[in-house]
Design goal:
single chain, 263 residues, alpha/beta, Rossmann fold, eight-stranded mixed sheet, 10 helices, 8 strands, 34% helix
């Protein structure tokens, strides 16, 4: 374990006085490498809190630019950044929050052609994507490359959160994303914020919870969200937790899996 500097003692003081975190836990955070897929509604609060917490290396992948309509929920961006690549805007914000961490950016779309090369550099992936194609892609690559995924989703006044660890050899009995959603909705069904809307603060709730789960997984704190789906209903201010198991017939992690490669 590396000895913390005086600046780090001050910056992370409120972590260090937590018996469950302490210097050992903070050292784990400083040594961790986390990839954030998306710098939007979910990626914004996730990246901000991970940077503040001292995650040593944060990767951000997004091929989009900042638009005025983003600012209602994507708090990592400012009005002055409209028209700029989201990854550049996010990196500037994070460097102002914590200049001691390393921020890597990828101004590209995550695809089957590049995901293997990108995720191999990271310990954990935060899924802040807004479409099923990318979620399945992340799930499959994480499973095949031994990575943990903390996943979030948004729709109107609701949000969802869960964690997938079945990529780890010691967690093969835990479910993956395909166990929860074996089939994607039909192509003509709309499940994107740009089509049906989203209450901006809901993104903040779920994104902050994602960041919390990332920190817990890295340090080894509390109860994992693997095998549990947390559903947040803002209209009634309710949280529900649904348990789900690995499907024996899952095409990825089941006993007769058929997916051996994502390409």
């Amino acid at each position: 374990m590396k000895e913390l500097s005086e600046e780090q003692f001050q910056r992370y003081a409120r972590h260090l006085i937590l018996d469950e975190v302490g210097e050992e836990g903070q050292d784990k955070l400083l040594s961790a490498k986390v990839l954030c897929v998306g710098a939007g509604g979910l990626g914004s609060p996730v990246a901000v809190y991970l940077a503040a917490a001292g995650i040593g290396t944060i990767g951000i992948i997004d091929d989009d630019i900042v638009d005025l309509s983003n600012l209602q929920r994507q708090i990592i961006h400012a009005t002055s950044k409209i028209g700029a690549p989201k990854v550049d805007s996010a990196r500037e914000t994070l460097s102002q929050i914590n200049p001691t961490i390393n921020v890597r950016t990828y101004k590209q779309r995550l695809t089957a052609a590049n995901i293997q090369e990108i995720i191999r550099e990271y310990d954990l992936i935060v899924d802040g994507s807004d479409n099923f194609e990318t979620r399945y892609l992340i799930n499959d690559a994480a499973y095949l490359n031994g990575k943990i995924v903390v996943s979030g989703a948004l729709l109107r006044f609701e949000g969802q959160l869960t964690t997938f660890r079945s990529g780890l050899k010691s967690k093969r009995d835990e479910p993956c994303y395909r166990c929860l959603f074996p089939n994607a909705p039909s192509a003509n069904s709309s499940n994107r914020c740009e089509d049906v809307g989203i209450l901006g603060s809901v993104a903040g709730v779920i994104g902050t919870l994602q960041a919390t789960e990332v920190l817990k997984e890295i340090i080894g704190l509390g109860e994992t969200m693997s095998g549990k789906l947390l559903i947040f209903d803002a209209m009634n201010m309710q949280f529900r937790k649904i348990r789900f198991k690995r499907r024996l017939d899952c095409v990825l992690c089941g006993d007769a899996s058929s997916i051996k490669d994502i390409t």
